[in-house]
Specification:
mainly alpha, 10 helices, extended
Length: 171
């Protein structure tokens, strides 16, 4: 008898609870046969995302095995992982000259998120190429802008004068 059969039987006898209540009770309180090992839960979306977006050299052996199993199970995800890693390589090695080929491959892949991202790169293609080929970045400027925005937000009644004074003097 399965848990679903049990649930159906007790609902016909007047049980008004949910299936999950019966399922959780069965998992927690029913005896298990000897040698029984439950199936491990599937990986979360966050775990799979972490396996796919991190550099493969930083993954542990167990994570590499899990990543390979997930990619073997879903060919679309394997294609998306390949496209993501090739774009990440372009970012880290300043290989913007390969961008037109990558955009063509991404658009032909018919993967909704990646295809729309690739099409969106065309809106300011020259700036994207410049960002992927030059060593310049606006990180320090963005940091200063974020600090100024934080101070402005705090000046609008979200912080006391003493805190603002400390933030401005320590900055």
């Amino acid at each position: 008898m399965t848990v679903l059969d049990l649930y159906r039987e007790i609902t016909t006898r007047g049980f008004c609870g949910h299936y999950s209540t019966v399922r959780d009770w069965a998992r927690r309180d029913l005896p298990r046969p000897e040698g029984f090992t439950p199936i491990p839960p599937p990986p979360s979306v966050r775990q799979v995302t972490r396996w796919l977006t991190r550099h493969p050299a930083t993954l542990t052996e167990e994570e590499k095995l899990h990543r390979k199993a997930v990619l073997d199970h879903c060919p679309e995800l394997a294609s998306a992982a390949e496209m993501t890693s090739s774009f990440a390589e372009m970012l880290t090695t300043l290989g913007g000259t390969r961008l037109p080929n990558w955009i063509t491959e991404a658009a032909d892949a018919n993967l909704p998120g990646i295809s729309s991202f690739a099409v969106g790169l065309h809106s300011d293609f020259d700036a994207v190429i410049a960002g992927l080929t030059t060593g310049w970045n606006s990180g320090p400027v963005e940091g200063a802008v974020n600090r100024i925005k934080m101070l402005k937000r705090q000046m609008f009644g979200r912080a006391s004068f003493g805190l603002l004074r400390k933030r401005v003097l320590l900055a």
